[in-house]
């Protein structure tokens, strides 16, 4: 385990490794996964209003005994109902049982990329969150938000990212704009674990395919949030700071990209 972090443009630090809880049902399964992760040294949990499991994340945090201030918590504004991001943030805080989250991001650019941003800035001003950002935003959508930001530009853009979804143009645009790209579905929701190139590199290094895929991100300084509800996998996914991929390994993994270096943040519009 490691306490490696990445500095956001607003000065806050985000741990490179977090546990994602997308598709983990509210209740014991989510409480256990988050509690195990915290016991195993994770200090970053990524949830969302749309996941419906913020209460379980909050319960696990309290049960773990880990001080609130030691854990980086992300939640996401659910844009579907076109509500007020600040009011929805306050509801998230109540469900999580915390006074503030560390990062609050627009889950996807539904209804257009800019309408929610003033409310996101308000949520930050009210102290509901330390940082604000976006998710699933393309270069154009990111530029649009940056254009309307009056108090704070987005600190992060969380997108689907892995060697197979190596969105080079998007990554470069984020870097140029001072936005940290965060990787969700770094294992391709499990699909990439059986890949031959990934397995070959893992075999040579005496590591697992999951560790190779996650290392590919953190070696670039990209925060990564693998999801698992199994304790042994949560533990395995944290052992990625004690080995290095060679330049040849990185090149071989880079070559797996199927997006042809796209500037787009997602495979398709799914809402
Ligand atoms: P499970 O939750 O049953 O452990 P992603 O983070 O890319 O969305 O991938 C998540 C998927 O990969 C989940 O189905 C998860 O299953 C599985 N997974 C997570 N970590 C590992 C691992 N170390 N080995 C094998 N499968 C894993």
In short:
The chain is of the alpha/beta class. The chain contains ten helices and nine strands.
Would you list the SSEs in sequence order as H and E? EEEHEHEHEHEHEHEHHHH
**Largest sheet entry:** 7 strands, parallel
Treating each run of at least 4 consecutive H or I residues as one helix, how many helices? 10
**What are the distinct ligands in this entry?**
adenosine-2'-5'-diphosphate
Radius of gyration: 18 Å
Strand order of the largest sheet: 3-4-5-6-7-8-9
| Helix fraction by DSSP (H/I, runs of at least 4) | 25-40%
Unreliable residue stretches? none
Form type: globular
Mean pLDDT: 96
Distance from N terminus to C terminus (CA atoms, Å) equals 36 Å
What percent strand?
5-15%
Class of secondary structure makeup: alpha/beta
Number of separate strands: 9
Task: Characterise this structure.
With 271 residues, this protein is α/β, with parallel strands linked by helices. The chain has 10 helices and 9 strands. The strands form 2 sheets. A 7-stranded parallel sheet has the order 3-4-5-6-7-8-9. The chain has a two-stranded antiparallel sheet with strand order 1-2. Strand 1 (5-7) and strand 2 form a beta hairpin. Helix 2 crosses helix 3 and helix 3 packs across helix 4 (117-125). The radius of gyration is 18 Å and the shape is globular. The structure holds adenosine-2'-5'-diphosphate. The site of adenosine-2'-5'-diphosphate has 17 residues, from helix 9. Residues 20, 185-190, 193, 210, 226-230, 233, 236-237 line the site of adenosine-2'-5'-diphosphate (A2P).
